[in-house]
């Protein structure tokens, strides 16, 4: 049954974003799945539901943000919830790091979220709703070999707080929160395993990093996002939620 709300999810073609799309669809949202990868996006959208809207959106492009939100308003009349999920991450220590790696990581993971907040707010403030930014435990408790990724995700936590304050100070009916997922089995982790000489011990190492000795499910993250957009979370804004099996303790 429809709940009369439209949600836009970035990076929704795979992993965490894909599962968020499924959970919001099942909760009755008009789901708009976006991604920069057209083929994967259309395949994934079909798996979620026939009435899902899928639109190409590279989160680094201001032009595409404008056209995407215009198209959503044209098709559904409004936007109530934005989930800034698209992100990339690969290791590169501070001694070997190159400018291209730094710029690309910060552009997608931080600037992409900033444009999402900027363009999303214009529409969401008219009807009320929330913005949920997907950060990472690496933004709070980083490892040594991912300086660009960790810095981008720490930036997302900070951006969430300024965004929440701005909305509250201006009496906009918009809340903004961030989720910090722990180690989750998606294409991002599969790439790290593929690049490793010993994927099995890397995988068990990822599990052991959390006190519960397990990976986080994409479902747990999606359920947290659904809660944060619900009325049950009406007094929650500017907050960070770790979903990490205890890694950040
Ligand atoms: N997997 C983990 O362990 C983990 C942990 C903490 C945080 N996260 C965060 O969760 C989010 C989702 O990651 P995931 O694990 O599902 O990875 P994933 O690789 O499965 O999915 C990421 C999606 O983002 C898309 N994308 C990449 N660049 C884009 C761009 N410029 N514009 C639009 N879309 C783009 C990709 O095409 C892909 O569909 C990311 O922000 C990631 O940093 C993941």
Automatic annotation (TrEMBL):
The protein, known as: Uncharacterized protein
Gene Ontology MF terms in the entry: oxidoreductase activity, acting on the CH-OH group of donors, NAD or NADP as acceptor
Highest taxon above the source species: Bacteria
Pfam families named among the record's database cross-references: adh_short_C2 (PF13561)
Organism: Brumicola pallidula DSM 14239 = ACAM 615
PROSITE patterns linked: ADH_SHORT
Family: Belongs to the short-chain dehydrogenases/reductases (SDR) family.
Lineage: Bacteria, Pseudomonadati, Pseudomonadota, Gammaproteobacteria, Alteromonadales
